[in-house]
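Tokens for chain A. Residues wanted.
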């Protein structure tokens, strides 16, 4: 019987929310002197924007393994799907910016 936490939608939402929350925490701890638009311009100018986005996806690894360990495979798939979306975003952004 499937758990109520075993949902592709839940995994996708958490897989998107975790990196965004990580980015927010990094912003508040390290870059709070900048406005958001100034920070984005700065990160793009220094060519580290895609690197920071890539590092912010690391918490998805923890989520993925938690879902696998709890046998919530659909949620793990959602996290994996969100990670692939972030990877596509990084790949596209790397060649556009």
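Reply:
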């Amino acid at each position: 019987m499937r758990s109520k936490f075993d949902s592709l939608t839940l995994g996708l939402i958490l897989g998107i929310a975790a990196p965004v929350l990580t980015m927010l925490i990094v912003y508040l701890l390290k870059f709070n002197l900048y406005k958001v638009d100034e920070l984005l311009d700065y990160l793009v100018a220094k060519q580290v924007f895609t690197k920071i986005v890539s590092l912010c996806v690391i918490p998805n690894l923890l989520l993925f393994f938690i879902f696998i360990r709890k046998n919530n495979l659909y949620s793990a798939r959602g996290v994996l799907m969100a990670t692939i979306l972030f990877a596509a975003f990084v790949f596209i952004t790397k060649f556009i910016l």
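The longest helix spans residues 73-96. The chain has one domain: 8-96.
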